[in-house]
Amino acid sequence: MNKENKASAAKEKIKKEPLFHIAKRAPLPFWKSAMIRVIAVLLALVVCAVVCYILGEGKVNPLELFSKLFEGNFETERKIWRTLKDIAVLLCISLAVTPAFKMRFWNIGAEGQVLVSCLASVACVYYLGSSLPNGVLLLCMFGAALVTGILWAVLPAIFKAKWNTNETLFTLMMNYIATSLVSFFLIIWTPDGSSSLKEFQIGQLPVVYNQYLLLVIIVALLTVGMYIYLKYSKQGYEIAVVGESQKTACYIGISVKKVIVRTMIVSGALCGLAGFLIVSALDHSVTTNTVGGRGFTAIMVSWLGKFNPFIMVLTSFLIVFLEHGAQEVSSDFPAINSAFPSIITGIILFFIIGCEFFVNYKLVMRQKEESAK
Length: 373
What we know:
Distance between the termini: 12 Å
Strand order of the largest sheet: 1-2
Number of strands: 2
Structural class: mainly alpha
Radius of gyration: 25 Å
């Protein structure tokens, strides 16, 4: 009777267990994880081709459409440099948010931190440009941008460290304050009511070969520096420990509050650098749309890059490549819906993000227990 009860209990347990469950996967070799991502991209392209054929009512050749993605980025030298420029700006902002995200401090305020830094740089040009030589003016712009970016980032950090406030909401709300400040100063600086500030002819970085090369070089050096900082420095180690477990950090003598404030100072300083570069190397002005949403896109770049600056170069390239390619598709295929390029971009990003599930997790099928003999 006892054996029968055990067998019955085992059968009942099997019935209640699900057919499969999700389990954490052991770290995969590089070639396997790379293969999963390549397969995800290929599947995304197949789905895009099918959607293209259906929405285009058979009039749009999917292969021709995909070729336009490449033409939008590499058809001419001007397009190549435009792609490199946009990758550099997006990567710079992504590097800025990476230390905070690796620490599990959800800094959603990079958009505002970069924007107020742009505003500070333009203010230096507006008020000091006529009285300072260009080199000194650039130093003032750089210093003002760094200080403003740090201030905008360290306020949420102090409140988080001292009163454990929600950093996501805090940093997000400060984006709106930054936008309002830019609107306010544009009204002051444009008495004609246009709220559109003309490009300055002073306070510009020197041109090396072309307008974008110096910007690309600076961001490339910053990428290497950030990798070394996060991988080999003591502060990078402390950021990683705090991100894994604050209790463990406290146990081994790391001051969590100090690390939070210090890391956000670094993050804000890099946002300030991004704002300075945007004003001095690219726009030479400021509007409420100067950052253009790249502060939010940088979050995805950092997350997909696993907080590794070198991998983030690839993710930045992917997003810029899709964005420019979508613009080319819109201009060359007026017959299709204007939202179609965004659909293609969304499908590809969906597959790339979704494949991370299969890199980190696996499905485990239910194993039947042998009946008691």
